[in-house]
Amino acid sequence: KSVDVVVVKDGVGPVIAVSMKGTLGAFRNLTNRMEEAVGDCTNLHISYPALVYGFLHVLTATPAGDGVRPNDVAVKDGMVVDSLRRYHDVLARLAGRDDVRAATTRYEAVGMALIEPRGRLAGQLFPPFPEPDSPLRFDRFFETLYAQYDLRFVYTAPKLAPVTKRTAWAEDSPALDGDWKYDYSPRLHAEPDPEPETEDDGGVGS
Length: 206
Hints:
Elements (H helix, E strand, L loop, with lengths): L4 E5 L3 E11 L10 H14 L4 E9 L14 E2 L2 E2 L1 H11 L16 E7 L22 H18 L5 H4 L42
Parallel strand pairs: 2-3, 3-6
Antiparallel strand pairs: 1-2, 4-5
């Protein structure tokens, strides 16, 4: 299986993967494509049970209007059409795998993003959908993936820490000088906690 993004750790194998799909129209046919997504997820998790796998689907928020076929309409009167809402509900049932013993048919994270196709907001997220409490919000997608990676490969496997610990920027890195040009905040090395002070026990061993 060819996956869009895969992170592999030496001696461990694939630890994070992201499969991405883009759709410009024909939204009524979306649910018919779910078998492919379920099959990919199941096959990879059977081969790599610890893999943290994410599925991200980006769709155009095409409004109803002249020249737009009904099947290609994503937004009508400011509301997402029913076919996209149904698809959202199907995707939500595929999200949330949080343990290596959990169902192989579910992804650790699933994201759904509607993108404005035109006007001054072209290229930006369509804010009203998915709703703020949806598990498919794009702004939670990578956060969920990284959290599952930490739980699975770092915190519960301390002996692998030299290989699997997440890297971070040094606070004095020249790369961080001036205005940060990217749309995410750099992960910085946390300051180690100071050693706790202990009272002098007069040399008596415990």
